[in-house]
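Researcher: I'm preparing a figure for a lab meeting and need a structural model of a single chain. I don't have an experimental structure, so a prediction will have to do for now. The sequence is pasted below. Please return the structure as tokens so I can convert it later.
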Amino acid sequence: MKLQYYAIDTPFKDTFTISGGRSKISQPALIVSLSLGPFTGWGEAPAISYYDVTVEKMVREIQAKRLFIEKFALTDPERYWHYLHHLLPEHPFLVCALDIACWDLYGQMNRSAVYQLLGNQWEHTPLTDYTIGLDSIPNMVEKVKKTPWPIYKIKLGQPSDLQLLRALREVTDSPFRVDVNGGWSYQRAEQMLPLLAELGVELVEQPLARAKTENDLEQMRNLKQISPIALIADESCVRLADMKGIEQYFHGINIKLTKCSGITPARVLINEARSRDMKVMMGSMNETVIGSAAIAQFLPQLDYVDMDGPLLLERPGGVGLTIEQGKVSLSGTAGLGIRPTDLPAGGFEDR
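Model: Understood. Here is the structure written out token by token.
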């Protein structure tokens, strides 16, 4: 295989802010490609400072391990993921990008869409929500009015959360999904959940911070028992090891391909969640069309999806995936069904 990689940094249409005052005006990412004969597969890894993941660190790792990444004799993507998992044990974001590229390449080689290789039929696909990042109440209301959508994901984590949701409810009847990013105390969550149910909120992602003590776990267990709406684990469920006993604390999990390290481990997480009778959501980290197309391959298996990255960015970064009023469509071509655009000339191939 032949590896190429490209650094991109795509501006957001609006400053993107979540709880804790974490804001950004653009989304840096590493785009990778794996080529074999006439076929080229594409993958993406967004850089997230919260996880200490930068494009520069991923590039250094690629440069150090390039020969090993390229020399693998591709027979199936799952074997390649296991190889990468051991080759790059401290770099799940980079492993994810390469795993996605391998699935795309393998699908093209076998004239099949990746979702078909995963055993999925393109039917009964859930709508993606549209995220409204933290801002002043008037600005968030204006964003909802400007972008009518069938489902909204609302970032919360401020003292004015309830006032905000009431203001938004005055301008839309669409269901809300709330993402707190671990920003509430137990007492705050206990107070808010019944009120959110009255305001048409269908689920809450990560109401409390990821548990560090037995008391934290007990609080999350109690919260699940009293919650009138679904509680979905995000930061609390990243990899398979996090699944142990998680049904005691949450109604479902939100899988991020980047954090769990790709399509291959995501399949395992979905099966594990279903075996525990849990809901499955898949979320994005503001990926372009490339990373979003990888999420789309799982749509028939999901209860909820949050893959609005291409809608929030100034440039979608590719063609072959469209999102209209929450409905996701693919081109129908093999692999991921997409083609990147706006890549820097030459990338890092010869550096």
